[in-house]
Amino acid sequence: MRILITGASGLLGLNLALETTRRHTVFGTVNHHPLKTNAFTVIQANLLVPGAVERLLDSTQPDWVIHCAALANLDACEANPLLAQQLNTELPRTLASHVARSGARLVHVSTDSVFDGLRGDYSEGDIPTPVGEYSRTKLDGELAVAAADPMAIIARVNLFGWSLTGNRSLAEFFFNNLSRHKQVMGFMDVFFCPLLANDLADLFVRMLEKNLTGLYHVVSSESLSKYEFGLRLAQRFNLDGSLINPTSVTQSGLKATRSPNLTLRSDKLASALGESLPRLSTGLDKFYTLYQQGYPHMLHSLELG
C-alpha cells in the first residue's frame, strides 16, 4: 500500500512513518521540522496553503492517508485560536473531502481531550464536552471529517513515545528529568490511558486492513494517574521514583485547563479486532527496549537544522 502521513516529524507521525515503511511505501509531510532520512519519502509542505492538499494527493496517489498534523500545544491553541481552528478543524475538513473523492481511506487522529474529564470511562457513544480551544477545535475537526468522508476512521488517542526533539511526550519528560536526578511533579488527580506510538502504528494498519469506519477510542486497555505513570517508568528504567513529587494539577501553574479523568473505553475496537488493546506494561517494556537499541539517538539524527 501507498501511505501518506501528515505531520511526519511529530511524535506520532514520525513513529508511524518508521513503523509502516517496513511493509508499505510511505510518504510523510513536514512543515516546520525538516527531516533527513531514506526510510520514507519526506515532502515539505504547508498544507494550509490553498491547493496544497490537492497537489499532495495528486503527487503521492495514496491508498491510505493517516492525518496526524495538528496544533496540539494547549497553550498555543489558547493564544492563537484562529490558527488552532485552521489546523485542527479546517485542514481535516479539506483533507477528508479530497481523500473521499480520490477513493483512498483516511484515518483522522483526534484526542481524548474532547471530554471534560469530570467522569471518565467514556465510550464512543458519550457526548463530548470540550474544555478550551484545543479540545473544541479537535472536536469540530472530528465532526468535519465525519461529514466530509463517512468512510473515514476517526481515532481518539493518548500516546507516549520517543520523539524527534526528545521532549514531546510525558514519558520523555519523566525520563529526561529523572536521568538527571531532577525533581518533578506527578499529577495524582489526572488519569489517562496512554498507548505507545509504535503500537498505534500497528493498530491503525490493522483497522485499515479490516476496513473499519467511524469513531474509535484507540488507547491503552489500562488506565492510571500521571503520577503512577512516572513511577512505573522510573521502575522500568531503574531510576529514582522518589524524585517524583505527588501533586494536584491545580497546584501546577499550567495556563490551559486540563481535564482530570480522560479514561476511555476501548472495548469497541477490541471487539472489532478480536483482541484487547495493548496494556501500559507492554508499552513501557517496548519503550525501554527501543532505548536500549539506540532508537532515541537515531530519531535525533534525523533532525535538520
Can you give a write-up of this model?
- The protein is α/β, with parallel strands linked by helices and 305 residues long.
- It has one domain (2-166, 193-223, 263-283): NAD(P)-binding Rossmann-like Domain (Rossmann fold).
- 41% of the residues lie in helices and 17% in strands.
- The protein has 11 helices and 13 strands.
- The strands form 4 sheets. It has a 7-stranded parallel sheet with strand order 3-2-1-4-5-6-11, sandwiched between helices. It has a two-stranded parallel ribbon with strand order 7-10.
Brief characterization of the structure:
By secondary structure, this protein is of the alpha/beta class. The protein has a single domain (2-166, 193-223, 263-283), classed as 3-Layer(aba) Sandwich (Rossmann fold).
Label the overall shape: globular
Strand content: 15-25%
Give the CA-CA distance, first to last residue: 31 Å
Radius of gyration: 18 Å
Tally of separate helices: 11
CATH topology: Rossmann fold
Helix content: 40-55%
Q: Which architecture name does CATH use? A: 3-Layer(aba) Sandwich
Enumerate the spans where pLDDT stays under 50 for 5 or more consecutive residues: none
SSE blueprint and pairings:
Layout: E1 2-6, H1 11-20, E2 25-30, E3 41-44, H2 52-60, E4 64-67, H3 74-79, H4 81-102, E5 105-111, H5 132-148, E6 153-157, E7 159-160, H6 170-179, E8 184-187, E9 191-192, E10 195-196, H7 197-209, E11 214-218, E12 224-225, H8 226-236, E13 244-247, H9 267-273, H10 280-292, H11 295-300
Parallel strand pairs: 1-2, 1-4, 2-3, 4-5, 5-6, 6-11, 7-10, 8-13
Antiparallel strand pairs: 9-12
Helix pairs in contact: 1-7, 4-5, 6-8
